[in-house]
């Protein structure tokens, strides 16, 4: 074989090897990189907040309201301002300071001289040692009370007399024991009423002897006539 032929064969072999190596199916596929997505920074995770436990106090009993201070049983009040002092068994008038008066002390009335205590009606009802007219009020009742008592004790005395003289028609006496209840003593009741009327007439007579304006004299005469008419109705002194 000539050298030219050998050279051609060698060239064909080299070319075949080249084609075999560089043909498309003999190459590994190229990796195509996908475009990277825009990286978005992740939001920081919110710190976990544990809810604060709510403590509900057990409902206990409501505190009891403090009771008001107890006042004396008589409910007499001393009412005063810069110019006057009065006693009443109701609330004090506007503009006057009130103080409860202890009238629970036992009364000592044996052998005491009498004085007059007036029950007056103005802005309210009150007691007075001077006539109601001097306090700009009208008279409701008059009572002869022991002069050796304090004013608060005189008020209690007068109120007790009022309670004894108050009619109890239609009210049955409360039983105090076993057995029949004795009926009220009519003679004793009459004696009490007559004695009260005698005292009232004496007080009115004494008051009428003072220098009084005509209008007050007329009022005293009317009160005295009512007392006398009541004495006649009860047949006092008979």
Characterise the protein shown here:
By secondary structure, this protein is an alpha+beta fold. It has a domain at 76-165 and 187-234. The chain has four helices and six strands; from the N terminus they run H-E-E-E-E-E-E-H-H-H. It has helices at 3-22, 151-165, 186-208, 214-234, and strands at residues 76-80, 85-88, 97-101, 114-121, 125-128, 138-146. Strands 2-1-3 form a three-stranded antiparallel sheet, covered by helices on one side. Strand 1 (76-80) and strand 2 form a beta hairpin. The longest helix has 23 residues, at 186-208. Residues 57-74, 103-110 and 174-179 have low confidence and may be disordered.
Q: Mean pLDDT across all residues, rounded?
A: 69
Please give the radius of gyration in angstroms.
58 Å
Oligomer: single chain
Residue stretches low in confidence (pLDDT < 50, at least 5 long) are 57-74, 103-110, 174-179
What form results from the Cα inertia axes? Answer: rod-shaped
- Gap from first CA to last CA: 195 Å
How large is the count of helical segments? Answer: 4
Q: Helices and strands: which structural class? A: alpha+beta
Which range best describes the helical content: under 10%, 10-25%, 25-40%, 40-55%, 55-70% or over 70%?
Answer: 25-40%
Beta fraction: 5-15%
Order of helices and strands: HEEEEEEHHH
Which sheet architecture does the biggest sheet show?
3 strands, antiparallel
* Widest sheet, order of strands: 2-1-3
* Total beta strand runs: 6
